[in-house]
User: What shape does this take?
Amino acid sequence: MKTHIPIRIVLILLLSALTAAATAPALSAPARPNPPLGIFGNANGDDVIDMRDVTLTERIILGLLPATPLADARHDGKLDVQDISQTELIIGRQQTKITFEDEQKKAVTFDQPIRRVIPEHITSLAAMRIIHGEDLMISAGSTAVKECMGPAFLLDLFDLPTIGAYGQPDYEAILHLNPDVLIAYRCGTLQEKLPGVTVFYAGYGEPYPPGNLPCDMRKLGILFDRRDEAERYIDWHNTYLNMITERISTLSKGEKPRVYTFYPLLGFYMCRGTYPPVELAGGISIGRDLGPEFAVAVDPEWVIRQNPDVIIGATIPDRGAYDTGDASQLTAQRNDIMARPELAHVTAVAQNRVYFQNNYALGLFPNFILSIAYYAKWLHPHLFEDLDPQAVHQEYLDKFQRINFRVDRHGVFVCPPPRTGHVSALPGKNE
Assistant: This one.
């Protein structure tokens, strides 16, 4: 079916397209390590929606350029001037509907504004609080959120109702709360069982690609009209990540320690596969050639042959992180590795470079930069002598979670505990 465009609109589009021709290279997606911002209206497929997308859509409508996957801002199967209007509405924060791609690249349309949200998992809850979305949350998510984070972290959110155990959503409880949107951790929460609720499969589960964070935070900022808050967090996150990766870029392959990472809940001989946080912190993940799986079974002989320089356990202790001072569980898990006779001559054990972290508190979206800071310190203590991961953690809590909590006095997050004495989170920064 042909789309008929009034001649006046054609002339306007043609004039703007010709005016933009001189700067045509800017219309294409720039070379970025980040994925595209998965919002319909992001015509050029970069990580923002701006006037370049409007200009590109105009040129597509005029037949000067081929259509792009996200140019159909209204997601109605047609590309016309209404898509230009919708893109402009998104840029101006005035949209009444908006369509995202979910983790499976399926389109999900949201009515705007959204007033009642259920974050199913700690990942979406922490991200919502980063963008000052507490007033929108009507549930604390699964029971695991309360069990693993506790009232010291959740504060008033601890009093909100839950919606079933992790991986076992209580659909009746969800419907009773009457949410507009449920942000699902994985695809196990079924849209067809929640009529009237928009379920967004956000893609925050592990293994999480670190490069997705700017777009994922930006999408939340746009969806809930908290754009400035999202951008502040992206800038903070990138400041630390860029500092770490810039220093790591000076190292040769021979200067990077080989790292065995595992998930204690699955057992020691379940090696994490591709694990980007270790690579970003200047390590070589020995499981990276095993494939993209979350964890791969290996035998003791394989670990001995690989002879890792460092071993990292990403665990979720029963006692949580913020509401305990009891490090016995992490200590016992670490001692078990150190005492294994088959590992006695593995470099990591022989040189006492075995570490554990609370993955639920430090290692997930949106705050996995906390893990990367610890990894950088563990893997390259001299290169990062002036970096204090504890101070980075404290800054994150003060600025973005806004809770009154001292990580140097309370909680159990890593084992062995960090050495104290550093005063600055970011080298050269004192606030």
Remarks:
- The domain at 7-95 is CATH 1.10.1330 (Type 1 dockerin domain).
- The first helix runs from residue 7 to 20.
